[in-house]
Amino acid sequence: MTRIAAKLSLLASAALLMFAGTALANEKCATCHADIVAKHTTTLHGKAGKDCLSCHGGGDAHMANPSKSNIIRFGKGANAKEQNAQCQQCHGKNEKLMFWDSSYHKKNDVTCASCHSVHKAPKPYAKQPESCFQCHKDVKSQANKFSHHPIIEGKISCSDCHNPHGALGHGMIKAENVNQLCYKCHADKRGPYIWEHPPVEEDCMKCHAPHGTKAAKLLKEKQPQLCQQCHDWSRHPGTPYGGNQNFTSTFGAGRGGLARGCTGCHGTIHGSNAPGRANGTVYGGKRFIR
Ligand code: HEC
Ligand code: HEC
Ligand code: HEC
Ligand code: HEC
Ligand code: HEC
Ligand code: HEC
Ligand code: HEC
Ligand code: HEC
Ligand code: HEC
Ligand code: HEC
Question: Does residue 162 line the site of ligand 6, with CB under 6 A?
Answer without folding.
Answer: yes
